[in-house]
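User: Quick sanity check before I run a bigger batch. Here is a single chain. Can you write out its predicted 3D structure?
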Amino acid sequence: MDKHHILVVDDNHINRLFFESSLKKLDLVVSLAVNGFQAIELCRQQRFALILMDIRMDGLDGIQTATAIKALETHQNTPILAVSAERFDFEQHPEFDNSFLKPISQDELKRVMATYIPDNQIDSNCFDESVALQISHQDSNIVNKLRQLLVNQLPDDWQQIEQLYNDSDWSALGDSLHKLLGSAKICAATLLIQHIEPLKTSVELQQIDTVALQQLKTAIDKTIQVAGKYSEAQGASDK
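Assistant: Done. Predicted structure follows.
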């Protein structure tokens, strides 16, 4: 299949080089825009799977640029992530799906890509099949049953986590995340593990924020989606 195409919009040359190098290491195609005007023109010419947007730029800023891009029919549903050296409240701006602080590490960038890049290219990041089979003594039926149990429980788990967060019940929230982490590890649900572990640590320090929580919600949604694909493929192979 074709590689997914990422657009990086940043007026800082060093930042553009960093993102270009880091994203190519993840086997992604990268286009660079030096300002908002160039970004809009590139979006008119082709579709992008994801856009990383600097906020403070000369000319059009990141918010104005994102608004113009979302007005294009081809990019109404394209995820746009704010990447800024200053904290940015993306929830106040519907054009953005999330925000991240610079500098962003390679591991964090990988988690972001696994969360937001659609379809099969990042499906392998949701589950580690080799580890799952090892845990289940090479029994694929057990792998599928455990995975289905996890997926069936995830909506209720999320509802509980969100409620405990809203109640600021850090002790119970930590226990809930610990339980979910155990289930994720048994199922080798790598995307969930990657998001639960840092969130669990931040809860223990009572420093959790809405961005980390939203990342977990996105990871849960993606895990459910990918598990459904595995289930459909397994059903087709059994016929």
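The CA atoms of residues 57 and 196 lie 34 Å apart.

User: Great, the batch can go ahead then.
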